[in-house]
Amino acid sequence: MPTLDSPIFGRFRLDSAPKRRAQRQLSTTGTPAKQPRKPHTKSRNGCSTCKRDRVKCDEARPFCGRCSKRQDVCIYEKPSGRLRDDDGLRGMVLCDQSLDNRAELERADWLIESGLKSSLINIILNHGSPQPLPRKVDTPGTALTPNTHLVQHLARCIDTSFQSYPGCQLFHRFVLPNCAATPALMHSLLALSARQLQHLQPSCRLHERAYLFHTQVATRLLNEELAQASIAAQKLDFIFATCLLINMISFATNEIDPSKSWLFMSDSASIDNALNWFMVQQGMGYLSKILSRNPNGSVWNTELDADTSCNPLFVISDDLPSYSDLELIPQILADICCITADSTPGNNPYYMPLVLLSRAFRIKSLGFGNLNSYLSFGPHVPQSYRVLLRQKDERALLLFMLWLMLFQEETCWWISARTRNEYAGVSWLLGRSEDGRIREVARDPTTFVRPNPSG
C-alpha cells in the first residue's frame, strides 16, 4: 500500500480542531506578562493587486515581492519617485544594473519567449490561460508589463485593431500561429498589445515602457532582416506583418493638444521624431512592391483580395495614372498644385498624392471606401512629396490635411486621436496662409473634394 509522502503534502489540520494558543509567560509576581506589540506601518502606496486582496504590500518597485512570488500582474496606481516621468527610454530598461547592456537584455528577454512552443501560444490566444506561463527563476525583473499579460491580451488586441475582416482573420489564422518562430514578429505583437493597454490605461508606466521596449527590439530585428543580402520568400509575409505592426504602433498617440504637433516645432531633430509616424509608412510601400513581385505569391495578396468592400477599379498600382485620373482632381486643387495634362509623377511631386486622394474621395462617395484604401496614401506617396511635407510646404500640407479628413468618422483606437489632432493643427496653420486659394480650401475642404455628379 503506497504511503503518503509528508514532505510533498506538508502539514494539514481539520477546520474543527481547536487552535493552539501560545502559553502566556508569567512575570516574577506570578501575573501574566504583557507581550510587546510588534511595530507595523500601513501600506498606503501598495500595488493595486495587494489592495484588491486586502494584504500588505512591501511596495517594492517595479514589482512587489508578493506579486513577483505569485507571478501576478503588479501595477501601481501612482508612479513612485523612482519612476520619474522624465526617465525616457533609459528608464524602461530594468532594475538589475548588471544587465544595463541593452543587447544583453534583449537576448535575455527573447530567451523567455523562445521557450514557448507555438502550440502553447495558440492555446493561450484561442482559449486563454488558466494559469500564468512559467517564468525562469533566474530571469532579471524588468520595469515592464509582464509578457504573459501581453500575450493573453493579444487576441482581443487584434480584434479591436483591425477594421478589415480579412485582415483580422489573416492575423488569427496565419500570423499568430507562427509568431513564436519569428523574433521580430513576436516583439512587434507584444508591442502592439502593450500599446493598446497603455491607450486604455494612460497612467500606467509599465505598459508604456513595455511597448517602447518591444518596439525598439522589433525594429532592430526587422532592420537586421532587411539588411540581409537576400530575403527568403517564406519570410516576406512575416516581415510585412512586422512592418505593419510597427506602423500601427507609430501611428497611435494619446496627445490631444494640436499645438504640440510637429507643425509647430522648429528644431530639426524634434520634427523628425514627431513626424516619424508618417515617414515610416514608406517601408510599407517598399515591401508591398516586393510582395507583388514574389513568384510564389503572398498570403497578404490572397487574403486581402477577398475584401470586396474596396472596388477593384480603384486599387493602387505601380503604373502611371491614366488621363481619367486627372478628371477626378478638383480644378482648384489642380491649379494650386500646378497640375496640367503634361504633369507626371516624375516632374510634379504633388501629382501622385493628388491622384491618390482623388481616388480615395471618389470611392468613399460611391460607398466602396474603407480604412485600407485610405491608409494606402502614406505608403504610396513619392519621396519628393515627403521632403516637401517635412519642410512644411503649404501645398504639401494642404494635401496632407485632405488625407486626414478621410478619417473624420474613424473611431479605431490607434487612428482617431492622431488624425484629429494633426488635422486641427494643419487646418489652423493653413487658415493663416498668404495664398487666398489655400485659405479658402482650408476653411471648408469638403466643398472642393466633392466628386462631380456626372463622373
Would you write up a description of this structure?
With 455 residues, the protein is an all-alpha fold. Among the domains are: 118-252, no CATH class; 323-443, no CATH class. Helices cover 52% and strands 0% of the residues.
Element layout with pairings:
Elements: H1 6-9, H2 48-53, H3 65-70, H4 102-114, H5 118-127, H6 147-161, H7 165-178, H8 183-200, H9 205-226, H10 233-251, H11 268-274, H12 276-279, H13 282-292, H14 299-304, H15 323-328, H16 331-336, H17 351-365, H18 371-375, H19 377-380, H20 383-390, H21 394-405, H22 416-430, H23 436-443, H24 446-449
* Terminal-residue CA separation: 90 Å
* Helix fraction bin: 40-55%
Provide the structure class: mainly alpha
Instruction: Determine Rg (CA atoms, Å).
Output: 29 Å
Identify the overall geometry.
elongated
Poorly predicted tracts of residues? 1-17, 78-142, 306-320
Largest sheet: none
Order of helices and strands: HHHHHHHHHHHHHHHHHHHHHHHH
Q: What's the total count of β strands?
A: 0
* DSSP helical segment count: 24
Beta strand %: under 5%
Q: What number is the mean pLDDT?
A: 74
Brief sketch in words of this structure:
With 455 residues, the protein is mostly helical.
Annotation keywords:
455 residues, mainly alpha, 52% helix, disordered N terminus
